[in-house]
Each structure stands twice: as C-alpha cells, then as structure tokens.
Predict the 3D structure of the following.
Amino acid sequence: MRLRRLRDDRGTALVMITLLFTALLALVALAFDFGSWYRAQRNLQAAADAAALAGAQDLPNTATAASSASSYANANATGLNSWSPSFPDTNTIDISLSKDVSASFAKLVGINSKTVHAHARAQIGSPGSMKNVVPVGIKSSAACATGSTGCFFTPKTLTFDDSTTASFGSSTWGLLDLSGGSASSSGCSGNVGEGTEAGWITSGYPGILTVNNYYGATTGQRTSIRNSLNAVVGKLLLIPVFDNANLSWCGNKGGFHVIGWAAFVIDQAIPNSDWNPHLKILHGHFETYIPTDVVSTPGVPGFGVKTVALIQ
C-alpha cells in the first residue's frame, strides 16, 4: 500500500511540475511579446506625433495638411491600418493610428497578434511676443492673413507717404522705434538714433517685443536706413503688423499700434526714385514662418507667422 501511495504522490507531483512549467513558459512568452508590443506602440506614437506636427504646419489649409500628415505617417511607420486625419477646426489636426503586431511566443497560448494604437493632436496659433524683429511696421490691411490664398509669395508694393497729415494717409509701412514701446499711445517714443535703428534692420532688435503696444514713428530720410534695407534684400525679415497709426500719438511725433507679426522679404534694392523726403517704396513679398522658442497667445491675429505645438 505504501509503495502504491508513493507512486501516486510522484505522479501528482509530476503533473504539478508540468503545469507549473507550462504556466511559466506562457508567462515568459507573454513577457517577451509584451515588450515587443510596447516598443511597437512607442514607435507608432512617434509616427503619430511627427504626422500631427507636419500636418499642422500647413493649417489652416486642411487638404494640404492631410496630405502632409499622411506622408509623414507612412514614412515613419509601416503596416498601418486604414486611417485619415481629422480636423476639429481649421487650426487643429487630429491623428489616430493603429497597426497589428504579430506575436512570437504568445502564439503558444493562443494569442496570434495585438493591435497597438497611438493618438496625437497638434494646433497652430499666433505668437504674442517675438524676438529678432526689424523696425519696419506693415499695415494689417496690406499684410497677408494666415490661411489666405494667392497672397503669400506674391509681389507686393508698400508705400510710406508723409505728405498727408491724417493717420499717415494711405501709408502701408513705416519705421518704428522698437525701444520706445508703451501700452498707451502717450507713453511711446521715437527718439532712437540712426545707427541703432540701422543695426536693428540688419541684425534684428535684441529684445523681446509684445503685441498690443504702441511704438513711436521715426523718420526714414536717412542714408544709413536705406543702406541697411538694401543690405537685407532677399532675407526673411520678422516685422510688426499695425492696425492703426496716428501723428498725434507718442508725444505728437506719430506712432503705430502693433497687433501681430509677419515675415517679409524685400525683393530689390531701393532706387533713388523710391526714396525721397515724402515718399518711400518697398518692393517685396510675404512668406509664412514658424519661429522657435515662442508660444501662441489666444486672440492674436495671424499674418503668416505661426506657432505649431502638440496639445495631446
């Protein structure tokens, strides 16, 4: 009897060991595949982030944004399930990706594959502050609004005419004293020196400027100002955009109310005929631009200089 019982105990132990070994093997298999699925999900997330950021750069043109997002997603991930970007609004793109990842050892326990998912959302905005700005203000009615068609990369002629006295007449550009900004139209100034302003044109203002400030007007009938403008022909310039200008502001020296930022390229050197005491003309075009190290500010109108950021 004792011999038979001993044999029964050994048989039971063998069955238990077999079951435990099978369970351990299953856990090892799942652990291996879970690691593989995790890496696949992280790679898929990186592809979704890249697609969202790439697509957002083309917003608010949703058709172009969708094409860019698809190209980036397909370039950074293979085997994607059918998908397409969505747009909660014209400033936002939403990306949801998924793919099936095959199992290796998990097949031993009946799991052949796992579907991994990734989601990203990016949004464009307009910066409320800007650095490396040049002291050339552009009137908002002459600038290109973000999302406009047929305006960017199209030749533009900007004029400054001080022969009239009411709000700078029909002028569409002017020179600003960027160091004399103020939150009120009475606190601004236009006393910057000629050499300093010329340096701002070629190198950009060294400080950070904000919208909804008033900046004093300065005279442009200076040789060094014209020379500096000619020195930056073909270079992208970050410029303030103003909605109003008035000769009674800034201590009755004239000033501009800045509301946003644009990117402008002067296309040709200024001839003598376009630079005289009362009339000054710039020939160029507007471009779109995405600066770094700036954030969007709600309510700031867009004129082609835009921020792009992941928000989910």
